[in-house]
Amino acid sequence: MQRTERSWPWQLLLAAILLAAAAGLWVATDRMDYTWRWNRVPEYFAYRSETLQKVPFDGVVEEVREKGDRVEVAVRSPEGERRTLAVEAGTVRVLPGDDLFEGDPVGSTFSWRAGPLARGLWVTIWLSFASGCLGLVLGLVAGLCRVSRNPALRGLSTVYVEIIRGTPLLVQIFIFYFFIGTVLHLDRIVAGIGALAVFAGAYVAEIIRAGIQSIPRGQMEAARSLGMSVPQAMTHIILPQAFKRTLPPLAGQFISLVKDSSLVSVIAITDLTKSGREVITSTFATFEVWFTVAALYLLVTSVLSQLIQWTERRLAVSD
Questions:
Q1: How far does CA 261 lie from the centroid of its chain?
Q2: Taking the C-alpha atoms of 208, 209, 214 and 217 in order, what is their torsion angle to the nearest 10 degrees?
Q3: At residue 278, what are phi and psi to the nearest 5 degrees?
Q4: Burial degree of 213 (CB within 10 A; 0-12, 13-18, 19+)
Q5: pTM for the whole thing?
Q6: What is the pLDDT of residues 243-254, one digit of tens each?
Q7: CA-CA distance, 235 to 299, in Å (whole number)?
Q8: Which of 60, 126, 210, 228 could form a disulfide with 223 if both were Cys (CB 3.0 to 4.6 A apart)?
Q9: Helix axes 286-316, 116-146, angle to 10 degrees
Q10: Quick check: 301 and 252 in contact, CB under 8 A?
């Protein structure tokens, strides 16, 4: 008779540990004598921006007319030119007959705009996406060179991988920006993407090499015996199988790349980390902003992880 394993005691233990961690965090923050201001965090994602509507010339207010939730202010210049400005109701600052000079505000309009954290999050996402795609291409080429029989290609790819893996990413970013960027007149965004792509490419190359070498050599020999060339056998037989096996480590590498992208803030790229620092400088809401930034990174990496797992399940169907 098969024994039914009871998992509820371990689940209770997990819940107790999480509750203890939450209680410890609450006690620690309570002892800090810190005033939390979570209500200010939403405005760092989106806010209503006020735009003053100013008269383009000297003139006189001819008419102030309400039209729904808007108010139209008609101004006429001494030369007879007439201009109508639409402003939000309740923000009108003039009355009919008032004399105005060029640049005087007559009211305001409001519009929703992305806050610094939303803009920084967007920069982090597309920066990671661009560098990840370039790193995948670079890593695929370098990985194929690593298993090539050509000594020159194999040596170049080995030197590339060893140099990149043996130096810190922060140093590589500085070299890309201050040396290569100066020589090639690269923008800081291009330099940041290039540094991240080259860094990721070295690790992807090793993952691709390991994936290719995990495929039995007999499959390549069988493909060649059927008349396929080496590129055809690699494209149609070896790489599809290697891709399935390397998907989990590739996912880990790309998730790591998202987190590593925070280092490009040192060359003045306003990503999520730099945006958080700028918000803290002006608001002193240190803990709220850093907790929010951490949660956003966790959200991005979690979505990427779920996407990779979904791809793994889809590919597993064909096995």
A1: 8
A2: 120
A3: -65, -40
A4: middle
A5: 0.81
A6: 888 888 998 999
A7: 35
A8: 228
A9: 40
A10: no
| Side chain identity at residue 158, one-letter code | T
Counting every residue written for the chain, the total comes to 319
Q: Are 75 and 60 in contact (CB under 8 A)?
A: yes
Beta-carbon contacts of 123 under 8 Å, excluding residues fewer than 6 positions away, are 269, 270, 271, 272, 275
Exposure string for 36-49, b = 16+ CB within 10 A, e = fewer: eeeeebeebeebee
Q: End-to-end distance of the chain based on CA atoms, in angstroms?
A: 33
Instruction: Determine the Cα–Cα distance for residues 176 and 182; give it in Å rounded to an integer.
Output: 9
Q: Which residue reads 């007439």 in tokens?
A: 82
Q: And the tokens for 255?
A: 């998730």
Take residue 36 and report the two structure tokens written for it. Answer: 């939390």
Residue 179 CA: distances (Å) to CA of 106, 156, 159, 211: 51, 22, 20, 34
Tell me which amino acid residue 249 is: P
